[in-house]
Model the fold of this input.
Amino acid sequence: MLAGEVAILALGSKMAAPMDDKHDLIGCDECRAIVLRAYGELRAHGVEEESAFRSALRVLSLRHPERSADDVAAVASKWLSGPAGH
Done:
């Protein structure tokens, strides 16, 4: 099992159910916190940046299966590049 898969399993019990189509992804503080936590905890445990990012994308994709991979990546990139992401 990869480190990212472990993080997804660990966060799984704390993640809320997937959102409906009307959910505003970019403005969701809960989704943002989940992405920042997944990425931050993986990086803190020595997981390489790219692997941590892919894992954070997977977590967000599980919450938003209605969103395209490009949309999820763009939103997660924005969150992780902001002041709270550093």
Notes: The chain has one domain: 24-85. Residues 24-85 form one domain. The first helix runs from residue 3 to 12.
